[in-house]
Amino acid sequence: MSRTPRPVSTRVRFLGAILGVVLLGMIIAGGVTFLVQSERVVANAERQLDGFDSTLSTSSQDAAALVAATIPGRTDGTVALDGTRVLATTPAPPGLSVGDDAGLVASLADQISLGNDRGRLDSDHGPVLYAAVETRGGVVVQVISIDQRMELVTLSTVTYGISALVVLLLVGVAGWFVTGRLFSPLRRLRDTTDAITIDDLGTRLRAHGNDEISDLTTSVNSMLDRLAMSVDAQRQLLDDVRHELKTPITIVRGHLEMMNPADPHDVTETRELGIAELDRLSRLVDDIDTLADVESGALEAAVIDVGALTDRVAELAGAIPGHTWTIDQRARVRIHGDADRLVQAWLQLADNAAKYTPEGTSIEIGSTADDTTAHLWVRDHGPGIPPAARHRVFRRFDRLSTGRGVDGSGLGLSIVDAIAKAHDGHCTVGDTPGGGATVALHIPVTGAQSPAELPTPVRAGDVVMQREATG
């Protein structure tokens, strides 16, 4: 089977989605960590300046002496100012070179003259925080470089980023193999379904594990089983119909070949025989259509009074000549189903009983019910049905050999069985006390109509067209 090319496979899309989620999570985690660490660095610098401010505020030394006694850190520097004139500054290195940055000194002098003792400025060292304290002989200013304080945070962030990329690569490699194993049952499922043809429906998948893919495999195997049953049923029906069609066609063809066109009597007999055989073919097609309708589940469900249904069937069956019809029992129960289809099935049982029993015998119709099931039956007093043959009477085109020359399509009881199954019921064949057969429909009392697991219906037109196509 040819497939439409895909630009990106499901495996790649699935893995890409996983990597995208992992990458997004890493970015969020790294970003939040960076922001928290940055805020902490700034907070530590502010606390240092607070300490500087509180210490110098209580000192009585002059500005130059205070600066000379200060030991600078790597990221800060202290300077004593008198306006824009630098009185003293901490050595650089190890501290910042504050006194040599004329622009920073001028900015500090401007801010101090405006009364801004704390703030943030730009310098040659990047953004800095400062705190100014006025003492004897000048103003002492401590400056802290934010960029240098952030060096450790920046290094940690870069390290985190490199580690995240390595982890993402490892997740991608591991994910590629994991998704490969995850999708391997789907590939086997695809290959198996590609290999299945209408001529070979026997291939099945092996279910591994106990997960959703295993459930899917089991469902596909079940679907293939039902499909195989449906195809086998259609083939069997086609073979049966082909066999049933051959007999009348052969009869009509043989009589037409032997007919003497110059003999009016022979022409009339041949015409009557042809019409009779065509009528039989028409009944066969009608029965096939009826069977297909029933097996497709096309029922009109309603609440049915079984007692009233019994009276109706007995009234209709009374029109069948040659027998005495009586009602033996009436069930006082209601069921859900298609009344017309149940009447059709029940009358078919009555018709079969009339065909296969001697004329003049009585036939009883009745219904009973228990807590779960309604039983609709027909009881005759004929030769009965041998136990060894009872499993065959509901097959399509299967007739019992009675020697009575009973006419029919061979689909009557198949239709009865299909109607029973469409109502979630079944049919049984039993013995009548004293001789005869009792055939019954068993319909659930509380069961509503549900689609029966039956083979896909075959329409008469499809059968005939396929027969013509196969010769």
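The above is record 1. Record 2 follows with the same two-line structure.
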Amino acid sequence: MNLVRKIKLKKRLLVCFLLLSIIPIILISFFTYKLSSNSAKRKLADSNKQLLSLINTNMKGEIEKYQYVCGSICINEDIQEALLKYDMSDIEKNKTILSIQDIVKTRIIYPANAKNITILDKNGRLFYDLGYDGFFQKDLEEIYSKTLNEDKDSFTYVKTYSGRDIIVLSRKIYNHYQKKEIIGFTLISIDEGLFSKTVLNPAEIHDGSNIILMDAYGTVLSSWDRSIPLGEKYNSSEIIKNINAINKNSGTFTLDIDGERQQVTYFYNRDIDKFFLSFVPYSYIDSAASVIARDVTIVAILLICVCCFILLFIHSSIADPVENMASACKDIEQGDLSVRINDSGQDELAFLAGSINSMVEEISSLLQIQKLQEKQKREVELQMLQYQINPHFLFNTLNTLKLVAQMNHDEVVSEGIKSLSELLKNTLVEKNEFISIEEEMNNLKNYMAIMKIRYAGSFTEIFELDESILKNKIPKLLLQPLIENSIVHGAPNDGRILNICIKCKEIGSDICIEIEDDGVGFDVNEVLTSNDSTASSTNPLKGLGTENVNQRIKLNFGDPYGVTIKSEKNKGTVCTVLIPAIKP
């Protein structure tokens, strides 16, 4: 193995490609066989097209005989006059039928394959029948409906009372004097068996093959193979889909029929809107080439076995080093940057292993730098969040104090100015990021004193503080946005006073601060699922203040800490702040 590894990878691959040059020989043999087979298929398809074209020509001559009979009946003046009489008595009708029968037998010459002549009135009722064999009523109604809706002669397969297979040629009878008025229908019954022998049987087809006549809906009207049921659909959806995909008067496609793959060739007769289809099984087409295919397959298998043995040997010289690198990369992905790849080879894979080792060392160095940058970034973000302050609060407060001063000469103004002064001193002058809980509570008292002036004493506050933890440290102005939410968003609409309770206690090694009010509250789930773009300015869950408080806590102390809000409509809201206990 080491001897092979001394050879450059490029040379190894070159040797491998030379050895694999034997495979193209196999491919050439295979494709030669396929091309020969496809050529035979194309020639057979062209031959079938010509055959169907001859059958179509033969059928045109046969159909013209029946169409001549139809035309003779449709233009006969006696028959036209009889169909125009709607109110004939039974005696007159019998005379008319005898007259028509005389006309049909003496004046009209129809082919021997025409087994019956039927005339319907314009409403589809039986007017005259030659009487050899009749139709079932449902078939008669189907023929009437189909003929009425088509613009040309219609061909329909039916079975007679005696079970005879019949192809019915039907045509509308128009009034001579009003060309658009339909006064009846002519039906010529053609014996399907005799028709098949006359039109389809003269064609020479191969073993297992078949030729059928099919309408545009996939219904079989006539078939050379008598085992195929007539009047039923024969793989119609697939056949019609393939014909529509080719979209030509003739074409060839492949179709699986009864588990056997067959070549289907079709020819479209536009005059009667019907298809001639030829079916030839691929087993017949490939029978002559099967022996060649067997021999080629045996040779190909032997050559492939030899090539595989050589490829396995060369593959191991490439795959083993690659697997070592992959294993090392997996460990590195899990975070173990102490992994190194040991490879003593002299090829490109060894060089790649050394490059990966260098890259890991560089990544380790960059991670140390990134950690330092993240720490600096965190400090900057904390400072930016600390200095975020709502200027509207200052302006609104000052305007409120100014208005009160103008209206009342009261100590309220001095108390308000005093509270504002203390608050501004602690926020703008004091630069420490952390202050004691006691100082934070004093800031809250000053803030709430100012808000009482602004909102005309619409709330009261209660402080329930654990005296033993008042010296613990807390981020400065952490609670002010939450108090503002309670005052602004929690105020009752019925005019009652809002009660706010601030509780501070120690739970294990953490400090828990609760801000509870008995205000209007809200539905937490409804707010979380709301897509309203104004939601951030109208609820405490999505407001800038609440989000800033939560971000400050998580940036300082990590994900286990933060703000949680519980609320219920018309009962109030509880904001819980959880931070670690920081001793002085």
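The longest strand covers residues 165-174.
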